[in-house]
Amino acid sequence: RLCAIAVFAWGHAFCGLNARSSSWPTRQRATAVETKERPADEQFSKDELATILQRYVKKGDISSVKNEFQKLADAGSAPPPAYKQVLKVIAEAGRPKDAEEWISFAEAQKVSLSGAEDMLMISRLEADDTEEAMRSLLAYVKPTLKMCRRLLQRLTDEKKDLKGATRLMSCLPAMGLQPNFAMYKSMVRSAALEGDMKMAEAWFRQLKDDKFQADDQIYVALIRGCQKAKDVEGAIRYFNLMLAAERKPPKQAYSAIILAHAEAKEVHEAVRWMERMIEANCDPDIECYESVLDAAAARGEKELRADVEDQWLARKKPDREVFKALMRVSAKHGDITSTNLWFERLRKGGYKPKPAVNEWKYLLKACEASQDKFAIDEAQKFFNRMEKAEVKPDAEAYNLMIQVMAKAGKPKYALRWRKRMADAGLVSPNSLQFDQIIKAISGDSSTISADYAADWVQFTLSAGKKPGASAWSSVIQAYLNEDRPDDARQWLEWMQQNGTAPSYDVYLKFMRSDDRKAASWHDQMEDAGIPPTAESFNLVIKSFSFVKGKQRMQKTEEWFHRMRAAGVAPDEETFAHLIAAAARSGKPEDVDKWQAELTESGLRPDNRVYFALMQRYLVERDPLGVRQILDWMVLKGNRPHRAAYNLAIRAFAEAGDMKSAEEIYRRLEAVGGRRDERTFYFLIRGHVYQKSPKSMERARAWLKEMLQMDVRPSFSIYGALIQGYAQLQQPKEAKEFLEELSLRKSWGPDRQAWLDVLRPALRCFQKAGDEEAVAKWTDFLNDKGVEINLEEEAEAEVSDDSTQKRPQNATVSRKFKKGQVSSVEREMKTLQEIQDAGNKPEIRDFNRVMKAFALSPRSRYSMARAFIEDNLMPVVEPNENTWTNLLRCNRVGDGKRGIFTIEWMSSLGVTVRRTHIEVAIRQLFDDYKAEKIDSVQLLLEKLLQALPEKSHLVTYNSIIRISAEAGLMEISMDWAKRMRSENFWVQPNTCYAVAKAHFKKGDEVSSLWWIDQAKEGDRGATAQSRLSRFVETVTRDDRSRGIIKTLFPGYGFLRIDEPPFEMIFLRSSLGKTAPKAGTRVSYNMVLDEKTGRLRADNLSPAREDPGLVDRLGNFIDRLVVDSEISKKEVPYQQIIEAYARAKHPEGAARWLQKTVDARKPSLQGYNAVIRSFAEAEEAETARSWLQRMRLEGLRPDLSSYKPVLQAFASKGDTKVAEELWQELSDSGDADDDAYCMMLQAYCAADDAEGVKVWVDRFEWEGIQLNWPSFTDLLRFYLSQGNLQKAFALSNEVALSSSFDTGPSAWLKQLEAAVKLKDGSHAEKVARSMTHFGYPVGRTGRGLLQEVLSEDSFQALSTSLQWDTEE
C-alpha cells in the first residue's frame, strides 16, 4: 500500500514540478541512483524516486535514502518537492523517528518543508502513539484546525478513544481554535455509538449552544445510541426533537426505535412504530421485521406474529432473503412447523439456485432449539430429505444432529452421528463443535447426566483440541444442577490444571448454587485476581440475609461495608437484600435506616426494594401494609412482578381474608401476569384453613383453574387438600388426592412432610372403618422409612388436651415414682379415684389398666376381658390399643385364645387391625413350636373366616412372614402357594423377610427364589435395588428395638413401637456403652425378679451381627461369579453400611476396595468406612482414610470430617482437632455440631483457656450447644469448681427450646455444692430445679440435708411444697 502511495505521490509531485519550477529544465533527466556522479543538467526521473521509496518501505533504512539524496544534492539534481514526498511516505509508514531525522536532513540541505509538523504528527498517529501526537499538537506554535480535526477523527473513528477526543476538544479554545460542525458531529456520533449517552447528550447541547443546527445523521446517531443503551424513552425523545426541528426522520431513525422496542420485548409498540414508519413512506427493512417477529415469538404472541408475517409478505414480493429471515426466527425459537412451512415455500417458489445446505440447516436448528419430544425424529427426517435432495451436509449439519440427540437424552444416537460424521470425512479437531455440543448436553437435557457431558470434554481433550471456557463452564453448571457440588469443584480444579482460568461467570455459578458458601467463593474469586462487582457482593449479602440468628444483620452489614471499601457502588438490589434481612430479623428501625440510606444514595427504589418492604409487613402480620406497598409500586410507575402479587395473596390468606386474597389474584390476572404454583398454593391453603365444606369446594375450584392453566400442582398443594378433606372427615376425597399424589414424582418432600400429610388421612380412614386404606397407606409410609402408630399418638393428644381442659382440683396424681411400671391394682385404684372425683374416665385411663393386665407376669386374660365388658364398654368405646393389650394378655399355650378373641371382636363389629392379626398369629406359631398345639391349619382357617375378605391380603402376608421367621418354612411355602392360587401377590416386604429367614438357616437357593418373587410386587425394581433391600432386611437386628427417651441417674426409659410403648431399663444394663437420648438401641425383654415386672435388658446401639454380614458378603461374591449378576449390580454401599453398623471397620474397608475395582467409589462409601473406624476408637486410621479419600479425587464433606473430629475430640487431642477444624472450616462445611465437638475436645483436655475461647466464639457467632457439649461443658465447670458458670449455663439451656437439661444436670451441681460446702448455692440450684419442673427427689433432698441446717432445709421444703412422703 505504501509503495503505491509513494508512486502516486511522486507522480503528482513531478507534474507539479514541471508546472511550477522554471529553474528546472523540462529536458533534464533524473539519473539512476548509482554511485557514479551525474551531469548537472541530467533530469531526475520519477521512476528512480519510486525505486528509492519502494526500497525504503521494504527495508526501513532511512540512511540509504539520505545517501541517495545527498548524492543528488551534490549533483544538483534533487528537487525540493521530492523531499516533501519522501516525508509523506515516512509519515504514512508510521515511523516518527525517521520523520524527525528526515526533517533534520532537509533543513541541513536548506530545503524548506511546509507542513512538516503535520506530517510528524501523522507519523505518530500511524505508529499508534496517540498520546505523543496529542502532545506534539499542543506544543505547536500555531496548530491548524485541519490537523486537529484529523487527530479527532483518528481518536473517534479508529481508536474509539472518547476520553482522548474529549481532552482534545477541551484544549481547542486554549489554542485559539473554535471546533467546527464536523468535529461536534464526530463527538456526538462516536459517544452515541459507544453507548455513552451522557457524553453524547453533553456534546449535543454544546453543539446547539455554539449555534449549530444538528443534521439528520446526528439525530439518527443519538436515537441509535439510546437503542444501544436500551433507553426506549430516550430514543423517542430525540425522535420528537428531530420533528420539532422540522427535519424529516429518515428510515434509520424509525428502524432504531423499532429495534429498541423489539429488544425490550415491547412487541405491540414495535408494531405501532412500524405502521407509523410505513405511513411516512419508509419501508421497514429485513432487520426490522426480523426483530419484531423475534420479539413476538419470545413473548408467545402467535397471532401478532402471524399478522406481521402476512403484512410483510403483502407489502413486498418475498425473495430468498425474506424467507431466510422467517426461517431464522422460527428456528431460533424451536418452531419446527413454521420453519418447515417457510422452507417449503422457498423450495417451491422457483428461486434459483435451489436451497443449499445453509437453508437446510435452519430445519435442523429448529429441531435443536425445540422442546418437543418428537424433535429428534423430525431432525432425522430433515437430514434424510437433505441427502435425498443431493445436498451434501457439512460439518455444522452433523454437529446440529449431535446436539439434537444430546438434548433429547440419546447418548448412543449422539455417538452414532459422530461416527457418521467421521465416515463422511468431516471429523477433525476443528470440525466438531465441541463447546456447543457440551453446552447442549449439559444445559438442556434432563435425562443425560452431567457425567456424559464430562465424557465429551474428555473426548475433546483426546482429539487434541482444548475445550473452551464455555465447555468447562457448562459441565460445572450441569454438576451444580444435579446437586453435585463436589464434582463441580473437582472440574473447576481440572479446568485450572488444563490452563483455562475460571471466569467471573464460573465463580458466580458456584455462588448461586450454594448460599452457604457464597462468601467463600467470593473470597476465592478475589484471590484469583477477578475484580468483584455489585452482582457478586449482592449474592453474598443475599445469602447472609437468610441466615438465622444474630449473624444475619451482623454479616450483611459487614459485607456492605466491605463492598464500599472495594470501591463498588451498592445498587437497588443491595439495599433490597439489606431491607429484607432487617425485615426477617423483625427490626423495623433497621428497615427505615436502610430505606433512608437508599434515598441518600440517589437511587430510586425498584421492585426488589418494594418487595423487601412487603416482606417487612408480612413478618408483622399486616396484610393491609403489604397491599399498601403493592399499590405504591404501581403509583410510582413500577410494574410489580409475580412474586409481589404472590406475597400479597399469602398475607391475606394467612390472615383468613380470602376475599382480599382472591382480589389480588384478579389484579395479577388483569395485568397479564403469569400465575405459578405458589400463587395457587397460597389460595388453596388459605381455603383449607377455613375448615368448612364450602371453603374446600373453593380450594378444589382453584385446583381446577390451576390445571387449566397448565400449572403443575406441587406436593404442598396436594398435601393441603388431603389434610383439608381428612379434617372434614371426607375419606373419599382424601383418598382421591392421595392416589394422585402417589403417582406423581415428588422429589422435594422428606419423611416428616409425608408423615404430616398422611397422619390426618390415616386417622380419617380409621374413623371411617376403611381398614384396607389404612393398611395400604401405612405400608406406603413404611416403604419411605416412616413409622407411625396412630393409637399412641391419639392417646398422647388426648392426654395433652385433657391436661389443659380438666380442672386442677379434678386431676388425680399417681402416687408412685416416675419410671416404675404400674401394677393392675394401682391402675385400678387410680381409675377409681378419677370416678370418685366426679370425672368421666377417658379411654386412656382404661387403657392404663389394660396395659397393666398385659404386663402382668401371669395371664390375666379373663380379668381383662371382664374388665372390658363390665367397666370399659359401658363408658367409652374401646380402641385399637385396648384390643391389642387384651391379646397380649395371652401367654405361652394361650394361642388358640387369640383366634377366639379375633372372632369375638368381629362379632362385636370391631375393626380388626393388622396389629391384632399379627399378635394372634405370632402367639399361635409360638405355641406350635412349643408343642402346645398339634396343628395350626384349622386355627388359621378359622382366623380367615372371622375376618372380612379385604383383610385376607394382610393376613396371608403375616402368616407367610411370621411362619418363616419362626423357622416353619414348609408352612410358609404352602401358604404362599395357596395365596397365589387365590390371585393374591406376596408383598415385597414379606418376600425379603422370608428370604432373610432362609438365608439365616443357610438355604441360599430359597433366598434367591424369594428375592426373585419380590419383583412381582415391585415391578420397577432392578436387580440392584432388590439385592439392596435384601441386604438391608438381612442385616436388620432381630432383637426388639427402641429409642432412648429419657435418662436418669440410675434408670431410663425406652420408647418402643408396641404396647406398652414405654419400657424401663437400668443404667447398668447399658454396659460400657453410653448412648445418649434419641439413640436407637436393641434390647431383650426380661422379667425383673425383684419387682416381678418386665424391663429392657442388655441394651446396645442397634447394629448388625458381623458374622452375619460376612456371610452375606460371601453370598454376594458367589452370586457375581455363579450367576448373571454383574459387579455393577452389587449393592456395595449397603454392604459397606452394614459392616459399619456392625462395628466391623475392616470389613467395610475391604468392600470399599471391591467398589474401587468395580466402579468409582462413592463419597458415602468412604464416609461409612471413616465412621466405622472412628466409632471403633481408631482415630488415626479414620484420619488416614480421610487422606486416602482425597487421593482418590473425592472432596470430603461434613459427614467425612465429623466422625474423625469426634474421635480426636473424645481423646482430648486438641492439636489434631484444630487441624481437622481448619480443613473443615476452609471447606465452608462446618456446622453447629462441629463447633460443639471442638468445645468438647478442650473440655476433655481440661484446657480452660481453650474452653473460654470457644465459648466466646459460640456466643459471638450465634452457635447453639447440643446435649453432649452441654453435659461436657457443665462437667468441666464443675470440675474446675466454677459453680456460678455451671449454674448460669444450666439456666440458659433450660430457658431455651433446644433441649431439656434433665434432672441429672441439676443433681450434679448439688453434689458439687455439697462437696464445696456451699449451702446458699445448693439452695439456689434446688429452687431453679423445681422452677423448671424437675423433681428434686430423694437423692436431691439427701444432698441438701448434708449441706443445709435443719431449719434451712425445713424452710426450703415448705417454700417449694415438697411431698415428704414421696
3D architecture notes:
- The protein has 1366 residues and is mainly α.
- Helix content is 68%, strand content 2%.
- It has a five-stranded antiparallel beta sheet with strand order 3-2-1-4-5, with no helix packed on it.
- It starts with a helix and ends in a 6-residue tail after the last helix.
- Mean pLDDT is 80; it is low at 1-43, 444-448 and 798-822.
Number of distinct beta strands = 5
Sheet bearing the most strands, described?
Answer: 5 strands, antiparallel
Mean pLDDT comes to 80
Distance between the termini: 114 Å
Poorly predicted ranges: 1-43, 444-448, 798-822
- Helix content class: 55-70%
Proportion of residues in extended strands: under 5%
User: How many H/I helices?
Assistant: 71
Strand order of the largest sheet: 3-2-1-4-5
What structural category arises from helix and sheet content?
A: mainly alpha
Q: What is the C-alpha radius of gyration, as a whole number of Å?
A: 44 Å
Query: Judging from the principal axes of the Cα atoms, what is the shape?
Result: elongated
Protein traits:
5 strands; 5-stranded antiparallel beta sheet; mainly alpha; disordered N terminus; 71 helices; 68% helix; 1366 residues
